[in-house]
Model the fold of this input.
Amino acid sequence: MTKTMFFKSGIKQGIIMGLCFCLYTTLMWLTKLDTTYLNIGQYFDIAIILLPVFMIFWIIKKHTDYYRITIFQRIALAVLVGFVSYLIYDPFLYIYHHYINPDWYDAVVNLKEADLMTVHTPQNKITAVLKEMKTSPIAQANLFRLSAAIPSVIILPVLIALISLLFIRNKTRNTTANHESPLAVM
Done:
């Protein structure tokens, strides 16, 4: 396997994943599932966690169909996909949270308040929780962006690559020099 083919396919998959995250966030905003209907939208937020699993499994599967790739190569490929995706999605998310939908967090606070009221939490406890929630994102916004990179680019992709070992095995195909693999056109 040539390193350029490995690199190009990882970049392409990362771009696709990053754009899918941007599209998901945009659709959540347009359908108001991130504000007005947040109680429904939170289930879609859980489901979107499957996107990196699918995308990383997909690229590893494509490579293992034609080449024997090592554990290190799986991890490197997964981290590359996560890194490229992060480079696309993080700036989009910043623009989304600060310019497109700056009031998004108010919906989160309102949902939390409604949840606490539903379970009959005392008013002083509700006030304390909401006050903490309102000051937390402002104080930690830049730290959050940095701390989001570590799980998005390293931890989650590495875990997915390691889990792929259970489900995706290397094929023992011989490819000839005259036979071009489908990965070459990726």
Observations:
- The chain is about 80% helix and 0% strand.
